[in-house]
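[User] Once you have settled down, look closely at the record that follows, and write a paragraph about the fold.
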Amino acid sequence: MTESPTIARSHGSIPVPKLGEIPILVLGFLLLIVPVRISKTLKDYAGKVSFHEYLHHVCNRLHLLNLLPRIESTLFRFPTMYEGELASCLANTSGNLFVDIGANVGRYTLLLGHRYDEVIAIEPTPDTFTYLKANVAQASLSNVQCLQCAVSNQVGTADFHLAESAESHSLVKTHANGHRVPGTDRIVGALTGKKITVPTQTLATILKDRSADLVKVDVEGAEWLVLEGAKPVVKQVRSWCVELHDWEEEGKKEELEAWFTSRGYKCSWLQHNHIYAYQP
């Protein structure tokens, strides 16, 4: 991959836990590894839900729920915890402003929070937004602004469709029966038929006249709505990382790459379904 100007060439700048955080780090890894080793039920559960939902479930059963933000705010600072290739790439970026669209409980906000002067973390789901704010507070990231809304192609409100896993909620009904996890045969994220109403903004209304060094988009099929609403400010974004939800459909990866290259970006694919686009 040709490196964007924002990618640091040294990996030594990735945050290392302080000595006082080591017990929480050890506890976090134990909670991740030990339960699935001793319980087939938990192993099956871990294969169907998100990292946060699994950890929440285990902490709840062990009456450690009050420690969840502290555990997550420590673990999320390690690129290898989730989407290794993608996270390791983004963990070596830096700049003035990072916009995390579809922040969930804050994995990438926490991973990059010390690399950017300012972070805007955007998450529409009420319960998830509560965890996002708790994790940001626990990580002492005073440079993070949390916005509770969905990013789309218009300002207003919209139906937000709820899935079995909180990481698969979406503005669109695409893949109502779930989608395949890239590189596996596992199907996750089936919609439940339930929905809530959420406020919507566009990236143009969020940025206004500001520039962003990195915009990360993970919105479970609504990425095209985000890009449509970003057209007025696309030249103000130095680099993008977008998860393409329907990456298996013929021509979709080429379509997304063409959207960026026609606007002067260079592109590279990370893993199966994440495009990294940057201004040369």
Remarks:
- Confidence is low (pLDDT under 50) at residues 1-14.
